[in-house]
Amino acid sequence: xxxxxxxxxxxxxxxxxxxxxxxxxxxxxxxxxxxxxxxxxxxxxxxxxxxxxxxxxxxxxxxxxxxxxxxxxxxxxxxxxxxxxxxxxxxxxxxxxxxxxxxxxxxxxxxxxxxxxxxxxxxxxxxxxxxxxxxxxxxxxxxxxxxxxxxxxxxxxxxxxxxxxxxxxxxxxxxxxxxxxxxxxxxxx
Length: 189
Prior knowledge:
Strand content: under 5%
Mean pLDDT: 86
Order of helices and strands: HHHHHHHHH
């Protein structure tokens, strides 16, 4: 194993940590948004609007059906007509709810600011600490010392060590068909 392999592995672990932090932030934001929506009555409003969209669609379809046999008149089915405008709202359960959340109000609460600040700080700390660990590994004399250092920090290097025990299998990423490597030899024979 080389120090470069350790560093590459650490870079992957850093990305994993950032993903975990992002998912945790998304969970917390979802909980926060749900609590705001409960206070504002967004779900109830969305349900009322949803039923109005259904009534609009029913009215348009009734009108079309009533006039369907008119000669020389055809009804448009483009994305700009009324039915298709309300289609997403009617056929996707949370479309109206989601649109209200994303377009009808902006959350400037202290709680949201605190969640965003905590996430930003978490990202910064993950980046800073992994940058420091990588710098420390680069400055060590060899990979073995790096493995010891990372183990002391609490990293589980089992997978990396196992992979290093079979270096040829992991180092070769592309299959090779050797018969195409020595064509000159075959032509002479």
